[in-house]
């Protein structure tokens, strides 16, 4: 009898696994993990950018100490980024994250534009290295965000489909918020860090 009960239990488990698999449970798990991995890369790239800020500010300050307003804006924007509690599954939290990162992007653009008025700064080897790192990081941020957007779209589309939506509801999987269209348009253009063009006369002191 014991062997029979074990056999019945085993068959029941196999049947349950087959039903779950057929209803998309395994695929939901995979797509959810793909979203988490993509989000982790987004956070890593944004953190990489934030880590560049102190050296950037210090280097520019060495040549343009009186540009205090710009330095303060960048430093404050970086601080706000660090204060945001991120929960990518919460729309309000994601919106705050977007806003804080957008402020830092704008502040960095203003900081880098300062160099146009300081030829010695533009020729500084450390500054050029940091400039290249920032440009590369901005590109990686764009790539990571695009991958995340697509992963969330794929996940959301899947759990809304029948019969996968029933499985998702049964196990508590919900639609995830995504980067907004307006913010996506803003992030698609990285802060300008190409200083090959000469500064305009209006930008000079």
TL;DR of this structure?
The chain is built from 8 helices and no strands. It has helices spanning 2-22, 25-61, 68-83, 91-114, 119-123, 125-160, 164-170, 181-187.
Shape, please? elongated
Task: Give a quick account of the main beta sheet: strands, pairing sense, barrel closure.
Answer: none
As for the number of domains, it is 1
Tally of separate helices: 8
Range of strand content: under 5%
Rg on CA atoms, Å: 24 Å
Per CATH, the architecture is: Up-down Bundle
CATH superfamily: LemA-like domain
Structural class: mainly alpha
Nearest-integer average pLDDT = 82
Helical content band:
over 70%
Point out poorly predicted stretches.
Answer: 6-21, 183-205
* CATH level 1 class label: Mainly Alpha
CATH fold topology: de novo design (two linked rop proteins)
Can you describe what's shown?
- By secondary structure, the protein is mainly alpha-helical.
- The chain has one domain (25-191): de novo design (two linked rop proteins) (Up-down Bundle).
- The chain is elongated.
- The protein is 75% helix and 0% strand.
- The protein contains eight helices and no strands.
- Helix 2 (25-61) runs antiparallel to helix 3 (68-83), helix 2 packs parallel to helix 4 and helix 3 runs antiparallel to helix 4 (91-114).
- It starts with a helix and ends in an 18-residue tail after the last helix.
- It has helices spanning 2-22, 25-61, 68-83, 91-114, 119-123, 125-160, 164-170, 181-187.
């Amino acid at each position: 009898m014991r062997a029979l009960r074990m056999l019945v239990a085993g068959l029941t488990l196999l049947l349950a696994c087959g039903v779950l698999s057929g209803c998309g449970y395994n695929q939901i798990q995979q797509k959810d993990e793909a979203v988490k991995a993509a989000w982790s890369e987004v956070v890593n790239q944004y953190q990489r950018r934030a880590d560049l800020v102190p050296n950037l500010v210090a280097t520019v300050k060495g040549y343009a100490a009186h540009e205090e307003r710009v330095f303060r804006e960048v430093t404050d924007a970086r601080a706000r980024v660090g204060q945001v509690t991120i929960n990518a599954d919460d729309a309000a939290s994601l919106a705050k994250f977007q806003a804080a990162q957008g402020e830092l992007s704008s502040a960095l653009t203003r900081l880098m534009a300062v160099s146009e008025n300081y030829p010695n700064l533009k020729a500084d080897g450390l500054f050029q290295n940091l400039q290249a790192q920032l440009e590369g990081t901005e590109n990686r941020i764009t790539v990571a965000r695009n991958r995340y957007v697509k992963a969330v779209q794929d996940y959301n589309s899947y759990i809304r489909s029948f019969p996968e939506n029933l499985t998702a509801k049964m196990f508590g999987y919900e639609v995830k918020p995504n980067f907004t269209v307006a913010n996506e348009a803003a992030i698609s253009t990285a802060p300008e860090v190409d200083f090959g063009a000469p500064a305009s006369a209006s930008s000079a002191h």
